[in-house]
Design goal:
alpha+beta, two-stranded antiparallel ribbon, Small integral membrane protein 1 (Vel blood group), 13% strand, elongated, SMIM1, transmembrane, single chain, transmembrane helix, 59% helix
Length: 76
């Protein structure tokens, strides 16, 4: 078996109570997520996304409540 290339480094100090493990994450993944978050959650687009999301949530809860109330209070 050949060793795999990883970005995990382990260093141990002389004192056994101080172990350090450091992992390097991919910069492309982090920057991609940060770009999407920055674009959709901040500024004017972020406000629009939050308003649209709030309206969708409101109407979803309203319709579920209306249908549930209709069947619960339906005259027999």
């Amino acid at each position: 078996m050949q060793p795999q290339d990883t970005d995990v480094q382990y260093s141990r100090w002389n004192n056994s109570s101080h172990d350090e493990v450091s992992m390097n994450t991919s910069a492309a993944e982090a920057s991609g997520c940060n770009r999407i978050y920055t674009k959709l959650c901040t500024g004017k687009i972020g406000i629009a996304v939050k308003v649209i999301g709030g309206n969708i949530l409101f109407w979803t809860v309203f319709i579920i409540g209306y249908v549930t109330g209709y069947y619960v209070h339906k005259c027999k």
